[in-house]
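During the second half of the funding period, the structural biology subgroup turned its attention to how the target accommodates small molecules. The most pressing case was adenosine-5'-triphosphate, which had performed well in the primary screen but for which no bound structure existed. We therefore specified the complex as follows and requested a full 3D prediction, including the ligand pose.
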Amino acid sequence: MSGPAEIVVVTNRKGGTGKTTTSVNLAAECAALGQRVLLIDMDTQGHCAVGLGIVPAKDAPTAHSLFLSAEARLADAIHATAWPNLDLVPANPMFEHDSGAGEPTRLADALRGEGLIERYDLILIDSPPSLDGLLMNALCAAKRVLVPFVPHHLSAEGVRSLARVLFKVASGPNPELKLLAFLPVMLDRRIGQHRSVSEGVARQFGQERLLTGIRNDIKLAEAFGKRRPVRAYMPGCRGAEDYALAAREIGERLAALAQRKQT
Ligand SMILES: Nc1ncnc2c1ncn2[C@@H]1O[C@H](COP(=O)(O)OP(=O)(O)OP(=O)(O)O)[C@@H](O)[C@H]1O
Ligand SMILES: [Mg+2]
């Protein structure tokens, strides 16, 4: 892959569905494949910095600086990580959601206006589960949507609610937005419900949009505690294997979508 960057938002309206685990580990896998990767953390929980071992200095610029000043530049908030090709724009845990993210295209304008799209092959955006100005900014900046979901029955409503939001954004402020794929996480194929919920997603959105998935693996949680991607914490564990496969499958899906656009 070579620039301009693919821009992928990792999102689900439900909390705790592996968005941040997926953002950090997918970013690390793609960087290890040689892609220049920028991960942007729009969620004020700020967990991407934890997962990548970055401790931003107090008052250092963050992704959320964009919404506090018209002069703020996203490029000033980029941190190199300990892993080659992998950069992070951390979140500001002190940003008040109520202070609003204003213009829904502030992030999109910064990515394009500052030439970041040319500097990277892949820009991944981790998003908050709440439907607010921050999520809208993420959806307006991205071209592709990756949805990690836990395959139990309660998650179906979260997926439906997200589908409604995506439809609204794609038929309004961001007509380029396309559903990339669904990624089952915390997967246990021995559980019938896991299989039936995943099959339901494939029926509704197309088999080609359902990725193989990430098995349940405590190593993924432990890696966060050790402040590193799982591929660096425990190479060859289930979580590391599954995110490596997901990175390859997502690369193929992105290439297929790009091809379809050309023909
Ligand atoms: N495949 C997995 N196996 C085991 N545990 C996992 C797996 N994926 C994620 N987890 C754990 O599940 C919890 C929620 O994951 P994560 O923080 O990535 O979700 P999230 O969607 O980003 O949550 P939020 O909506 O709060 O931002 C974390 O404790 C994480 O370590
Ligand atoms: Mg998260």
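Two results from this model are relevant to the next phase. The beta strands are 6-10, 37-41, 79-80, 86-89, 122-126, 144-149, 178-184. Residues 15-21, 43, 45, 47, 129, 185-186, 214, 216-218, 220-221, 224, 239 surround adenosine-5'-triphosphate (ligand 1) (CB under 6 Å).
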